[in-house]
Amino acid sequence: MKIDKLVGERFKEKPSDCVVDSHALMLRGGYMKGVANGIYSSFMPLRRVTKKIENIIREEMDAIEGQEVQFPVVMPGSLWAESGRYDSIGSELLRFKDRNDIPMVLGMTHEEAAVQLVRDYANSYTKYPFMIYQIQTKFRDEARPRAGLIRVREFTMKDAYSFHTSQEDLERYYAVCYDAYNRIFARCGIPEVVTVQSDSGMMGGSISHEYMLLTAIGEDSIAICKDCDYRANMEAAESIIENKKHEDAKALELVNTPDMHTIEEVCTFLKADVVDSCKAVVYQKNMTDEYVVVFIRGDLDVNETKLTNYLGENIHPAVITEECGLNAGFIGPVGLDTNKFTILYDKSLENTNNLCCGANKVDYHYTGLDISRDIGEVEYLDLAKIIEGGICPKCGKHSISISRGIEVGNIFQLGTKYTKSMGMQYLDSEGNLHYPIMGCYGIGVGRLAASVCEVHHDDYGPIWPMSIAPWQVQLCCLRADDEECKAVSDKFYEQMLADKMEVIYDDRNIRPGAMFSDADLLGVPVRVIVSPRNLKEGVCEIVTRDKEISLKVELDKVIETVKGIIADRLK
Amino acid sequence: MKIDKLVGERFKEKPSDCVVDSHALMLRGGYMKGVANGIYSSFMPLRRVTKKIENIIREEMDAIEGQEVQFPVVMPGSLWAESGRYDSIGSELLRFKDRNDIPMVLGMTHEEAAVQLVRDYANSYTKYPFMIYQIQTKFRDEARPRAGLIRVREFTMKDAYSFHTSQEDLERYYAVCYDAYNRIFARCGIPEVVTVQSDSGMMGGSISHEYMLLTAIGEDSIAICKDCDYRANMEAAESIIENKKHEDAKALELVNTPDMHTIEEVCTFLKADVVDSCKAVVYQKNMTDEYVVVFIRGDLDVNETKLTNYLGENIHPAVITEECGLNAGFIGPVGLDTNKFTILYDKSLENTNNLCCGANKVDYHYTGLDISRDIGEVEYLDLAKIIEGGICPKCGKHSISISRGIEVGNIFQLGTKYTKSMGMQYLDSEGNLHYPIMGCYGIGVGRLAASVCEVHHDDYGPIWPMSIAPWQVQLCCLRADDEECKAVSDKFYEQMLADKMEVIYDDRNIRPGAMFSDADLLGVPVRVIVSPRNLKEGVCEIVTRDKEISLKVELDKVIETVKGIIADRLK
After folding, report:
1. Which of A60, B140, B143, B400 has the most crowded CB, counting CB atoms within 10 A?
2. What is the mean pLDDT of chain B?
3. Boundary (domain end) residue, out of A352, A381, A410
4. Chain B residues with CB inside 8 Å of A505's CB?
């Protein structure tokens, strides 16, 4: 098509509210426009990118025997009540009532719909295994949409659900899907995506992986071992601490610590190492407001995902009132009412002594705490966040490094959470009933597009891989007012269209600088530049957006050369 | 793929709640499953059909310079308030609030979103004309979903919006789109679709057309002239009545009509022709409950769409209370309070006399009414429904016939309704501001699939046209337990896959009857049947679902023959 007809504004200035490059470039390049907080419309260039991504996903899902289906965006609340998620999910699940006052939800994921679709059909072991998937709009009422298409409220997602009669078969298929995902990301131009173990959270199940594109703007933190292949989402990474008791065990002693509220202040005042302190972090359960006190080594932080998973319910940071029985800033394990509060100990406190801790009394702390001696036997849980330089849970070396990443896909072994709660069963060959075992597999299409842009761009625009570029070739007629230049360009355009190349043609009568700025923003991989100066030498220029290729090519070799570059990059 | 892995139930019994064949066949064939009232999930066969329809639509929209974009499903209510539709549309527009209590709507159409997307960009006449379209999920909270995919609440729709600087240019493009629509329906296998003039209703604008597939199960009524090319939706068809006064004019006379409430009862009692009666039909305005009394010839019905358009507001059939001042069953024009009620006269009463009508008094009617004589000069409006055998508004003959049809698409000339209300303007070449003129163009994908099924099926299943069939070929191995039969079938399957044919392979060890029932339900155009009996003769059978072709073909000619049939039918 011709660029002068391309609907969408392109501009130079970085919008002030953009914190990541892909967001700014997609606004500047006329890829999309905001409609509401976290809700966008796509212009043609982005829609062309997302369609190509969708087709790559489709091909790879079909290749592993996926059957494309379609679930509704709007579902009855009663369906989500069957699995229990109508009540258990927070306000990110958008609930409303239809004209007949029937509770409905907007689909943010489709496990319930998948089970509903197949539970009558898949009543015999002979029907298994199978996988169904869809590419469909989803809505998740995020509290804080951010970073353009990286975290939105409405998005297009490929979600797949597989059904199996044994854990072994699920694992076999899970591995197949694992590989298909790697192929999808490689084909979309980001083969560098890594998989990490993750927490399954509200999805249920146990084993799951996230596909992470490592970049500083990612909102996930990933623990990566420098010495072995261990990689895990911070939320899921086990925190390993090696403790030794001090040999000169001290006695428990009450000390006055006036106006000191943080563990750092107390340690400085007492000249103690923060490693020898026992910090209290207090939460409340969302449902009951009951207080949960977590004791943890002073230099570590609580991993709230682990805590939520352990408690089996959602929590929030505590509001400590005067009547609640806790002395904010002075909370410690000694004398704390175990009937009144849920009290948990992190593993970092196991086998320690000579700790300082709050004394549950304003302006007082204890020193010399030894939990086993002063409190007795307690259970030590893994509730801490893994730290930079921490111990790798796999190889045991102090080799953990923390990186940021964007989650571009995830795969889960769901188990029977949904089939059990929703009463889906099949008969085995001996006539016994079982609950099928599920896996689920998601990729956000828009986020993937933005992620590719995030790692493949320069200051002037995206550098799209050939496989998902909005067009393959940008044809620039540098002097539309020059008869020969225009005639040669027009002829190339016709030939390219006839050869089914995806070409966008710029024959506007504008300055070369403006023309190239627009081309940079569209990020088309191959650029063919026709100018009077080059025509004098009987050539024109072929350059690639990524600067890898820059050629002067004789006119009768141009089409062939461009074709070759396209074919080479689609391999 | 192999049919034994195809997810979805196929069954023989017609579901009791199905009133149309396409609904029953799509449930019986494992095409879809209900999730809630008017909300369905699609299994793979239907998704394959809808994807092919979507691609045909895409190709035709791209061919007329459409730019594919994507608007959100969930939009802020404030966007719809800009056009006024947030308030003017009834409860079919699903409104709700997000987690921050912001009013949102589910898109049932996207005029507002289209204007929002382009109003900053299209600020100069040089950017015009252009057309943008999307294929996206929509939600319309229908009071009475019915007939399977014919009238649902959630559906996939292609909606397109064009923008122009003159009415002439809109009309030029409207004609281009008109033709593209005809190509789309022809390519989808229903070239018999006709266009009719329609009422634009809430979309605004004036000229619009509906694409109607004539079938008895359609929910629209269409007036078609048998003598000329006039075709219109009943809602839009002008009602032409030729009246003559009786020569023996009678005087107005009050007569006792005890217990007679309908115009038919009164006419029978008075031995009058119902054509010589003046019937009252009473409505109330939705906003104010004000009464609207329509007087119309006794044998005609009020066209509520015309009435709504005339009044400019929505109405409902009246609830006549004791205090309201109307005597139900005895309402007539003589003495009715014009200050208290909106009183309207249909054209069918113009130039008439000797009418019987209510006397606004219980158990009394008048005879001998002549409105011009007894009431005075009134305005006569076109408020009646056109009738079978009525006068054609175009050729003037008594040649109107009423048919039923399914609306499979529509095109509207919107004018400036949305650009004006939403403040979208452009500068012309002389620096003056104007509102662009819009057209909009819709096709429901699922309804189109169901419509094709509705007119192309037999008792055993759909008969899909090659262009949108879920698969092109169904390969039936009639005796999977026969070694040669299985080997030959397997080899065909491999060859067909290698040749990129879309093949579904049935190699289950089941009775031929069951195999053919399933094949009938899938409606695949070409069937290749491999049986031991035919193999003895060195042939296999090739038949088409529509029974047009039935051949015995030598084994080495099978692939070539099938290819030929497919190519021929895709022409």
Report:
1. B400
2. 93
3. A381
4. none
